[in-house]
Design brief:
Blueprint lengths: L22 H12 L5 H9 L18 E5 L14 E5 H18 L3
Length: 111
Amino acid sequence: MRHNRHSNFKKKKPQSKDSGKTVDDIVRELKKLSNSPSDYREKSLKIHGLICAKCGREFEYKDRHLLTIHHKDGNHKNNPTDGSNWENLCIYCHDDEHSRGLLGDYFGSED
C-alpha cells in the first residue's frame, strides 16, 4: 500500500485570537471604514453623475474610471457628504486644473 508523503500531517485550522473587542466595537470600526476617504469617489459619481464638470463630456458606467474627483479647496481630507467640495473631472481636465497654477507661476515670474 502506497502512502502519500503528506498523509501523516493534519491540516491545522487557523486559530482565532480574542481581540477583546465587543461586537459593537467591531461594527463601529467597520462603519468608519465604509466612510473612509476612498469612499468619496463613489459618492461623488452618484451625486454629480458621470459627466466632467469642466468639458461636459459624458461617460458610461464602463468608462467611469476616466473620471476623477477633484477637491475644489485642494484638501483631500475635506469630504462633506453633500459633495460640495467635489467636482467630477475627466483625467484631462483634472490634469489641466492642477497644471494651471504651475503655468501661471512660470509665466508670471520675472527673472
